Write the structure tokens for this entry.
Amino acid sequence: GDSVTQMEGPVTLSEEAFLTINCTYTATGYPSLFWYVQYPGEGLQLLLKATKADDKGSNKGFEATYRKETTSFHLEKGSVQVSDSAVYFCALRDTGFQKLVFGTGTRLLVSP
Amino acid sequence: DSGVTQTPKHLITATGQRVTLRCSPRSGDLSVYWYQQSLDQGLQFLIQYYNGEERAKGNILERFSAQQFPDLHSELNLSSLELGDSALYFCASSVGGSLTDTQYFGPGTRLTVL
């Protein structure tokens, strides 16, 4: 079945450091890909999405490019802030299915 | 604020009991989804409704059931509760059922079964 694999956390960075969170997927069709963020005590918020190969999703300084050849959707940010500390979930939505399939989440801790 | 509301925010109950979680989707959204977030299983899809009809089913136990009402709000019923049902239950909504529709999540209901 469809699955999403994310790098284990926590990822610990200093403010203004470069962030990469790896995400790879397995799907039978041509999925849409998403990054969601969960701040402490809150629900999930959509961070960015890409619906086809080579699309780049971007929001709030975060970017991810849909790479079909490597089945990846890595999340990047050039300069993280303390306020970016949260859990980040990579997810896919496959053709023919409505549900989101989530990775296990990666906790990001940014220190001043 | 996503526009999706869930009540109650917290629920503490005992094994064997039955509870109902409620979700109101964003205005205009026809699809409602339920997800369970637990420490051991992660985030898992339970069930989807579209305009009152069940559209897709995931890893939902037989002890669990859901429905979507004519005003489009949805309820998730959990019965014969077990300790392992303790989790955060999220509702999400989207405009329709398209694969590119964004799902907007509510703040969740934290269920604790003692």
Observations:
- The interface with chain A takes residues 2, 4, 31, 33, 35, 42-45, 48, 50, 55-56, 58, 90, 92, 97, 99-100, 102-108 of chain B (CB under 8 Å).
- Chain B has no helices and eleven strands.
- Chain B has a mean pLDDT of 93.
